[in-house]
Design brief:
This protein has 17 helices and 23 strands.
């Protein structure tokens, strides 16, 4: 791809971008949210026509008219949000649009044979082709999408954030498959925010920033700090800020808490002016623990004490008690994507935004604008729909909602999942400042409970860390008493 330009009105999404990838090579494409990666890949996959520039495939001019034309040309795109028909079988999804037929009718025997071959190529030989994909775990659904690309005999495969919802074991299987596909001379473009993945799976990387190609290099030889500096346009000296802070009064007390399934047993004390992290494997019960604390799931036994209250609760009561939550899944649970930034930020606390029970949009905007400036949220205005924002800015809206409600206790479930390193740094800074408080503005220090699968993040920003293993929460220990090996050993039950 050479000199690719694309504008949407006054917004210049791509400014002369150039990338290349060789057969059998895994090339990582990295950059912050909004850098132009998605737009560039939509040009490659035929979803957008470039305003200028040229593309070539195997040395011949390539100008896809639409995504189907791109697929037929051998370019396959696996999006972060899987594009499967959940009610259809694996083989129907794999051969959707290219079904073998005989005299105008689908040839089911050939369809099954071709789908079985494609499934075997991605390590799913034990899955019956007739299995509806909605019965498969997310990791296997992703492999079904890759099997579809294999069935098309693709020459270029684009993987967009393929590990964002996978366990460590599933990631290892995916990496093995990527290497096998590359060995068959398929050119692979790998998009990820996890730089350790970039260095583990790719031979070369290309960095986009503000719609331009700003650097490239060999993945094994470039230090992470160098790649980060290219992505954000500056040196990130301290990715994990953590001011000195003495823990304050107890804000949240949990004693032998058990949910209907998980957690099995969890106890902790969370204090103001403290960031307490919860590590653990996917499925260990960390999200269920936060859901139970916040009243989204029923309590089977044990107590949750906020101030002097330790009875049953639901989310509305938790908001009134000064507890707010940022969900792990911001798209379906954490935000109302079709509503504006102002609507999302002010939803938990509409009092005072109009006379009586009325809400004036102008007062919503006045209440939201300071948070847009302070956090900051990159947007046109508070009127803008949240769905238009990048992942990092969507996450900031979710956190701004907690700040508008002026909660004392913040429950953050995977707050930096799927966002770029620059946005991560801003959210880490925000978490640190919230726990610290601000004497100049009179903002009281907050108590922060954070769940994360990214161990360096927990070690970098937390004061104490506890580990969830099979629904059991370990004692919280000072961050200095942990390292990555100890956290992982505790998470798998080998403390």
């Amino acid at each position: 791809m050479r000199g690719i330009r694309k504008s949407f009105g006054a917004t210049h999404a791509l400014r002369g971008v150039a990338i290349s990838v060789m057969p059998g090579e895994v090339m990582a494409l990295v950059g912050e949210n909004g850098a132009g990666k998605s737009t560039l890949m939509k040009v490659l996959s035929g979803a957008h026509a470039p305003d200028d520039g040229s593309l070539s495939l195997d040395g011949e001019d390539y100008a896809p008219k639409n995504p189907l034309h791109a697929r037929e040309s051998g370019v396959a795109m696996i999006y972060q949000e899987l594009s499967l028909a959940p009610h259809l079988s694996a083989m129907e999804n794999i051969l959707l649009g290219i079904e073998p037929s005989r005299r105008g009718l689908i040839n089911w025997r050939e369809m099954r044979s071709r789908a079985t071959e494609a499934l075997a190529a991605v390590g799913l030989e034990d899955i019956p082709p007739e299995t509806p994909v909605n019965r498969l775990p997310i990791a296997q659904q992703q492999l079904v999408e890759i099997a579809r690309a294999v069935a098309l005999n693709c020459r270029v495969l684009v993987l967009d954030e393929p590990t964002s919802s996978l366990t460590a074991k599933d990631i290892e299987k995916l990496f093995a498959l990527v290497r096998d596909l590359a060995a068959k001379d398929i050119a692979i473009i790998y998009i990820s925010h996890f730089l350790e993945e970039v260095q583990a799976i790719s031979q070369r990387f290309t960095v986009l920033r503000d719609g331009e190609t700003v650097g490239e290099g060999l993945s094994q030889e470039a230090p992470e700090e160098e790649i980060i500096a290219l992505m954000v346009g500056r040196n990130v000296e301290d990715l994990y800020p953590r001011n000195e802070r003495a823990p304050g009064d107890i804000a949240l007390e949990v004693d032998q808490l058990a949910g209907m399934l998980k957690p099995v047993s969890a106890s902790l004390e969370l204090r103001k002016r403290e960031v307490l992290g919860i590590a653990g494997l996917v499925g260990a019960g960390r999200t269920e623990f936060l859901d139970t604390l916040f009243g989204l799931e029923p309590v089977a036994s044990g107590t949750v004490t906020i101030g002097t209250y330790s009875g049953a609760a639901e989310p509305a009561l938790r908001w009134s008690q000064g507890m707010g939550m940022v969900s792990e899944d911001r798209k379906t649970q954490g935000l109302a994507l079709g509503l504006s930034i102002a609507d999302n930020v002010t939803l938990p606390k509409l009092d005072g935004l109009g006379p009586g029970r009325l809400v004036f949009p102008s007062q919503q905007l006045n209440a939201c604008d300071p948070w847009i400036e302070q956090i900051p949220i990159k947007c046109r205005s508070a009127h803008q729909p949240v769905s238009d924002l990048s992942g990092g800015n969507q996450q900031k809206v979710a956190i701004a909602r907690l700040l508008h409600a002026d909660v004392d206790i913040l429950l953050l479930d995977e707050p930096t999942r799927g966002i770029d390193v620059g946005s991560k740094a801003q959210i880490y800074q925000l978490i640190d400042s919230l726990a610290q408080g601000d004497s100049k503005t009179g903002r009281e220090p907050k108590a922060v409970l954070i769940v994360s699968s990214y161990i360096p993040e927990l070690l970098g920003i937390c004061d104490r860390i506890a580990v969830m293993c099979r629904g059991q929460l370990s004692d919280a220990k000072p961050v200095e008493d942990w390292d990555e090996h100890q956290l992982m050993a505790t998470a798998i039950g080998q403390e």
